[in-house]
Specification:
By secondary structure, this protein is α+β, with helices and mostly antiparallel strands. The chain has helices at about 5-15, 25-30, 35-45, 80-90, 115-125; strands at about 65-75, 95-100, 105-115, 135-140. Helix 2 crosses helix 3 (about 35-45). One of its GO terms (cellular component) is cytosol.
């Protein structure tokens, strides 16, 4: 499935917005009957356009008061060290996302914690002890303007 048609895009847009949408409602929304709609959805899943479904958890209900972005720098650029760093990052739940980036830093992390005290302790006890880390520059989110809504349908 290289070329997505209008119907495929409509299905992807609908399930991106609501992963639990019933097939009947999805079919009605995009103008197909249920069986062809279910078949098209299954084809999109099998072709890898849909990697999975998940719930969007409430930041407020979970008492997550601080979202921070941290730029991580290494002085030594060694593949084995980077691999160890990345393996350890994967196991840390407070790190919401991690990107290997270009520019003055090596990695950009998004971190979720309850408050500034917890963030300070997390920096001291976790981030600064990770393999390869020589500097961390933090930026705190003051207000979220747009949340992750999934990838755009280009």
């Amino acid at each position: 499935m290289k070329n997505l048609d209008k119907t495929d895009r409509a299905i992807l847009a609908a399930v991106r917005q609501d992963g639990r949408i019933p097939i009947a409602k999805l079919a009605e929304r995009i103008g197909l009957s249920e069986t062809p709609c279910a078949r098209r959805l299954k084809q999109l899943e099998n072709a890898g356009y849909i990697e999975g479904y998940r719930a969007v958890l409430s930041r407020k209900a979970l008492d997550i008061g601080v979202i921070a972005f941290a730029q991580i720098r290494f002085n030594i650029h060694d593949r084995a060290l980077s691999d160890r760093f990345e393996r350890e990052i994967l196991a840390i739940e407070r790190i919401v996302s991690c990107h290997n980036i270009s520019g003055s830093a090596d990695y950009l992390l998004q971190i979720a914690v309850r408050d500034l005290d917890e963030y300070g302790a997390f920096m001291r006890d976790v981030m600064r002890t990770l393999p390869g880390v020589t500097s961390v520059e933090s930026m705190l989110s003051l207000r979220e303007i747009k949340a992750d809504a999934g990838f755009p349908l280009l």
